[in-house]
Amino acid sequence: MPEKARRADQRARRASSLSSEPIDLGQLPDLLGYALRRAQVAVFRDFLKCFAKFDIRPVQYGILTVIELNPGLKQQQVCRALGIRRANFVTLLDDLERRGLAERGPSATDQRANALYLTEKGKALMRQLRKVNKAHEDRIAASLSPAKRRFLIQLLDQIELSAEAPNE
After folding, report:
1. Counted domains in the chain
2. What percent of the chain is modeled with pLDDT above 70?
């Protein structure tokens, strides 16, 4: 089946799955943002299902990963690395601290700032979460060869750079 016909068929099935009446999605399925959002929702849905017993959301996994691999970073550095607003990050970190997974400590380079570390409980949890995440990644990329997976990531990186480039 030609690509255009296959995509039209997918659109029709998606639209009619919620209703007996076909719904015209117009140009939406051909828009990058729409396709990215649908993929993101599917990936997050699978992530939440896989990580439910640990009560971990994607943003928390990202924070724990960065702190684990970079102990002693300042909050601002983690915010920048993950693209999280500082006000949102404080709430997220407070929750991780309450759960005994991460902690703030004195910074070796800046006495005015807090450095971030995983607790022993956080380190043990990350050992488990990495295994769960591997299975999750394998499942969502099952239809992609390793080369296609790398290429998709490269394409997504290019889109991010294009979207962040200043308008001229």
Report:
1. 1
2. 88
DSSP 24: -
For residue 139, is it within any domain?
yes
Do residues 116 and 73 touch, judged by C-beta distance below 8 A?
A: yes
Domain that holds residue 160: 58-164
Cα–Cα distance for residue pair 68/60, rounded to 1 Å: 12
Compute φ and ψ for 117, nearest 5 degrees. Answer: -140, 155
Strands (E), 82-159: 102-106, 114-118
Per-residue pLDDT, averaged over 123-132, amounts to 98
pLDDT tier, 159 (very low <50, low <70, confident <90, very high otherwise): very high
What residues pair up with 102 in beta bridges, in sequence order? Answer: 118
Q: How many CB atoms lie within 10 A of CB 148?
A: 11
Beta bridge partners of 116: 104
**Does 47 have pLDDT greater than 70?**
yes
Helix (H/G/I), strand (E/B), else coil: 84: coil
Per the prediction, the chain carries an average pLDDT of: 90
Provide Rg for the chain, Cα atoms: 20
Q: Are 79 and 89 in contact (CB under 8 A)?
A: yes
